[in-house]
Amino acid sequence: MSTVSTEAPPGADRPDGPRRPHAPKRRGPRREKQWPAYVFLTPWMLGAAVLTLVPMAVSLYLSFTDYNLFEAPSWVGLRNYREMLTEDPRYWRSVGTTLLYVVVAVPLKLVLALGAALLLKSLGRGRSFYRSAFYAPSLLGASMTVALVWRALFNDGGTVPDVLGAIGIDSGGWVGNPDLAVFAVVLLTVWQFGAPMVIFLAGLQQISPDLYEAAALDGAGRWRQFVSVTVPMLSPVVFFNLVLEMIQSFQVFTPAFAISGGSGGPADSTMFYTLYLYERGFTASHMGYAAAMAWLLLIAIGVVTLFLFRTSRSWVFYADEEGR
């Protein structure tokens, strides 16, 4: 006669019943689904390594060497940096010229781009045509051909000095004037306001009309609506354009090279940082010195960008942070 066991299984006295062993996690199919992503990312990773990371590492090494493109580089330590910061007055003139350009060109370009965006937003018919027309200089302005035409316009006997002379402003040729040559480059940059204008226009179209209606009901006029509604709601777009234009302005090269004929003249008035870097690296064959200049430029742009991000907390308004 068989005996039936009445012993309860382990864990039966628990309120949630007996504990069941966990099933092993299946990771095989997930890993199998990931390999196509790595395959498609491989060209980008190879490009980033070969075209960006490796050249940066080589450039950093060359900045501590004496290298003339024809002989093997010889290690000199911090001599390039020391000479640049303490013994090279042209370096500091290039820094001053570049800072003047950034301080003048970037605000003017952003103000003009915002004004054009506000004008386009108020237009009914023809908005697409004018948007394309205003954007066209951004496509053409970076070319050497347009920069040479710009030089002819501002040179002695050019259209701009003749027009100014006709209205009683005898400025002469801007290209040959050390006090005005840099402003010819500034105007060429400001003329290319199409890219930030399109971004401003997209930001303006995202602002809710209800905000303007509420401001109008409170008695706010157009200027008050612009200051109290448009500017705060558009501040993230202003910040985005400011960072991009600042970075690009520090690296300006083609307009300065074309207008000055590659010399940075007259009297180094258009000797921008990148133009001087080009001169030391490829004209004077001091590639180690040029590499050191490039790394200091990278550090300077990083510091200024970090400063803009730090200060943005006090003037950039994000709508999703209102309830936090």
Automatic annotation (TrEMBL):
Q: Where is this region: Disordered?
A: 1-30
Keywords (alphabetical) are: Cell membrane, Membrane, Transmembrane, Transmembrane helix, Transport
Does the record carry Thylakoid as a key word?
A: no
InterPro entries from the UniProt entry:
ABC_transporter_permease (IPR051393), MetI-like (IPR000515), MetI-like_sf (IPR035906)
Membrane topology of this protein: Multi-pass membrane protein
Comp. bias regions, Basic residues: 20-30
Q: What Gene3D superfamilies is this protein classified in?
A: MetI-like
Q: Where is the ABC transmembrane type-1 domain?
A: 95-308
Name residues in a coiled coil.
none
Q: Which domain of life is it from?
A: Bacteria
Transmembrane region positions?
Answer: 35-64, 99-120, 132-153, 180-204, 225-244, 287-309
Is-annotated flag, keyword Repressor?
A: no
Compartments it resides in? Cell membrane
Tell me, in one coarse class, where this protein mainly resides: membrane
* Pfam families found in the cross-reference section: BPD_transp_1 (PF00528)
To which protein family does this belong? Belongs to the binding-protein-dependent transport system permease family.
**PANTHER family from the xrefs?**
ABC TRANSPORTER PERMEASE PROTEIN, ABC TRANSPORTER PERMEASE PROTEIN YESP-RELATED
Q: What is this protein called?
A: Sugar ABC transporter permease
Q: What is the lineage of its organism?
A: Bacteria, Bacillati, Actinomycetota, Actinomycetes, Kitasatosporales
